[in-house]
């Protein structure tokens, strides 16, 4: 019987072009407000999806043998017409299916791996959401599935919460889906999430992780009073959880500092009801500081290898040391 060869996973920094695309879309979305364009929500949502596409591919399907699909999804996302977002989502879903089929060839036993159902369902939810565009509330669902799913790991490591996977994610999945049909459930998503992942060994030691979890709980609850569920999601959940998981996964040495961006994003939501003209400045500063913390990933070598330059330098120093 011929012994099957185990493929080597060669990652690359697939998320970096998507981060640049997200910033470009968010810049267009921000400019659309003073210019009185009607595209503000569309560009802001495209930016969120660009960030999502980049991170799910980096963390779950980073191998270079999916490069053609990575580039295809990027190209289709660049075209700001919602039909192309459907095609981009299909390319992402194909990437996921191919990656899952290839698990055995990488030497993994798929049956023994934890299944992050929230994350893995998000590309297919993205296809449905873009097919039904311009339903902006529906476009939030795939993003919620991904960011709540991926942060299960971040919270379990940094706050010693319960690492829920597979069927144990069902309560989170249900409240996300039901919140589309019954938006009044949205403010309680953070509470339901916390109750699902909570265990007695919960610790408050990591300020950044605790701040992002607190934002997930408090900002949606505040939306019961202030209203505007969409911005409660974008500023209190989407931004803060992306800041958290991206910094932790790419620049862990700066993770403790991301608390500043989290607080600024939360303030942007609260202040928009009192000082709308200046509240956005807080979010812009939060984004710029986040980019500063992950800046070591923007080198060509970092993109080629999928590693922060600081990690690359550390590996080089360790090899050269006697």
In short:
The chain is mostly helical and 322 residues long.
What would your notes on this structure say?
The protein has 14 helices and no strands. The chain is an all-alpha fold.
Content-based structural category: mainly alpha
Q: Percent helix among the residues?
A: 55-70%
Instruction: Please describe the biggest sheet, giving its number of strands, its sense, and whether it closes into a barrel.
Output: none
- The ordered H/E elements are HHHHHHHHHHHHHH
Shape: globular
Transmembrane segments: 12-33, 39-55, 67-94, 114-133, 140-159, 171-195, 207-226, 232-251, 258-275, 281-300
Protein name: Putative integral membrane protein
Keywords: Membrane, Transmembrane, Transmembrane helix
Quick tags:
single chain; 322 residues; membrane; transmembrane helix; transmembrane; Putative integral membrane protein
Helix/strand layout:
Elements: H1 15-31, H2 40-60, H3 67-78, H4 82-101, H5 117-131, H6 136-158, H7 170-181, H8 189-197, H9 207-226, H10 229-250, H11 259-271, H12 276-293, H13 300-305, H14 309-320
Helix pairs in contact: 1-2, 2-3, 2-6, 2-10, 3-4, 4-5, 5-6, 6-7, 6-10, 7-8, 8-9, 9-10, 9-11, 10-11, 11-12
């Amino acid at each position: 019987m011929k012994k099957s060869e185990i493929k080597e996973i060669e990652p690359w920094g697939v998320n970096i072009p998507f981060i640049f695309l997200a910033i470009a879309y968010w810049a267009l979305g921000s400019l659309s407000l003073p210019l009185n364009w009607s595209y503000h929500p569309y560009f802001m949502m495209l930016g969120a999806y660009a960030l999502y596409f980049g991170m799910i591919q980096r963390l779950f399907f980073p191998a270079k043998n999916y490069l053609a699909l990575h580039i295809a999804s990027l190209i289709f996302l660049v075209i700001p017409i919602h039909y192309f977002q459907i095609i981009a989502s299909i390319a992402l879903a194909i990437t996921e299916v191919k990656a899952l089929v290839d698990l055995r060839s990488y030497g993994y036993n798929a049956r023994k791996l934890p299944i992050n159902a929230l994350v893995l369902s998000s590309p297919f939810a993205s296809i449905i959401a873009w097919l039904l565009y311009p339903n902006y509330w529906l476009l939030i669902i795939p993003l919620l599935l991904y960011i709540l799913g991926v942060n299960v790991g971040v919270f379990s490591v940094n706050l010693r919460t319960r690492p829920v996977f597979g069927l144990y994610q069902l309560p989170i999945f249900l409240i996300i889906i039901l919140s589309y049909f019954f938006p009044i459930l949205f403010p309680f998503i953070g509470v339901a999430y916390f109750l699902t992942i909570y265990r007695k060994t919960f610790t408050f030691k990591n300020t950044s992780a605790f701040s992002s979890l607190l934002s997930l709980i408090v900002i949606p609850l505040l939306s019961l009073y202030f209203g505007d569920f969409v911005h409660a999601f974008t500023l209190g959940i989407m931004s803060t959880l992306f800041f958290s998981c991206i910094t932790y996964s790419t620049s862990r040495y700066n993770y403790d500092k991301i608390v500043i961006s989290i607080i600024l994003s939360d303030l942007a939501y609260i202040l928009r009801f009192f000082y709308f003209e200046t509240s956005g400045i807080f979010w812009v500063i939060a984004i710029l500081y986040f980019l500063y913390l992950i800046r070591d990933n923007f080198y060509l070598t970092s993109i080629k290898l999928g590693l922060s330059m600081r990690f690359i330098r550390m590996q080089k120093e360790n090899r050269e040391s006697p």
